[in-house]
Amino acid sequence: MFATRLKSGIILVLLAFGLIMAGGPVLCVSLLLISWVGMYELYRIFKIEKEPLGIVGYVMAAGIYLYLYFKPEGSTGILMILLLSIIAILAVYVFTFPKFKTEKVLGTFFGVVYVALMLSYIYRTRQLDNGILVWLVFLSSWGCDTCAYCAGITLGRNGKHKMAPILSPKKSVEGGIGGVVGAVLLGALYGYFLVDATVLPNPVFSCAVVCGVGGLISMVGDLAASAIKRNYKIKDYGTLIPGHGGILDRFDSVIFTAPIIYYTLMLFMKGLAIL
User: 145-175: per-residue pLDDT in tens?
Assistant: First the structure.
C-alpha cells in the first residue's frame, strides 16, 4: 500500500509540475478537467452526478475557467457567473419539482464554489510575477501535510493533544504546529532563492508569512473534506489516484489554500488597495 501511494504521489507531483510549468491554456483546461472530476466525486455523494442539477454545475465550472482564461485578474465576471449559477440551479429545481430535495440544490452550488472556483485560484496565482509564486500553494499545503505527519509521529505520538478527536483521531496539535512551522521554513527558503527574481517586498519574510497562513488554512481544508466524508459514511471520494483515493482526497488542502495564497500575495504586492 505504501509503495503504491508513494508511486502515485511521485507521478502526481511530476504531472502537477509539468502542467504548472506549461501554464496558459494547458493549465487552464487541465484545471477545468480536474474540477469536473472533483465535482463528479462530490455530486456522486448527493446522487446528482448525472442529473440536470449536476450538468448545470459542470457548465458553470466551464464558464468560470473560460472567463479566467480571457480575464485572469477579473472578479466582476466571476460574480456574474455565480449569480447565473444560482438562477440556473433554482430554475432546474423549480421546473423539475419535487424531484430534487433542497440539500441537492445547495450541494450543486457548493460544488461549483468549493471545487471549481477555489481550484481556479491556482491558475490566477500562476499569472502572478511570471509564474514563480504559484509554487507557494503546494509548498504550504503539501509541505504542511508532510511536516505535520513527521511532527505528529514524533512529538504527538502519545496523542495527548488531539486536534479533532472525533473527526480525525490521528491528527494532533503537535503535528499541526509542526506542519505550520515546516511550511513557514519552506516558504522562507523559497523566498531566499527568489530575492533577485520577484517583485515581492522582502521575499524571505513575505513567502514565510504566505506559506504559514496557507499551511494553517490547509489543515482546515483537510478536515473539512474529512467531515463531509464522515457525514456520508464514505472512506474516499474516489479511486482515481491509487493509494490516495479521488481528486478531492488529494486536493482537499490545495482547494482551501489556493485562494488564500493568492489574496495574501496580493496584499503583499499591492497592499490593502485590492480590498
Answer: 888 878 777 765 555 677 777 777 777 788 8
Instruction: Report how far apart, in Å, the C-alpha atoms of 251 and of each of 34, 186, 222, 223 are.
Output: 10, 19, 9, 12
Q: Within this chain, do residues 93 and 165 fall inside the same structural domain, yes or no?
A: no
Q: Give the torsion through C-alpha atoms of 10, 12, 131, 135, to 10 deg.
A: -60
* Whole-number average pLDDT of the chain: 89
Q: Are residues 171 and 72 in the same domain?
A: no
Which residues form the domain of 58?
Answer: 1-126
> Which residues of 115-211 form beta strands (DSSP E)?
162-164, 168-172
135-154 and 247-270 are packed helices; what angle lies between their axes, rounded to 10 degrees? Answer: 120
Stated pTM of the model: 0.91
Alpha carbon dihedral 122, 123, 127, 129, in 10-degree steps, equals: 10
User: Using an 8 Å Cβ cutoff, are 191 and 208 in contact?
Assistant: yes
Query: Do the beta carbons of residue 65 and residue 117 sit within 8 Å?
Result: no
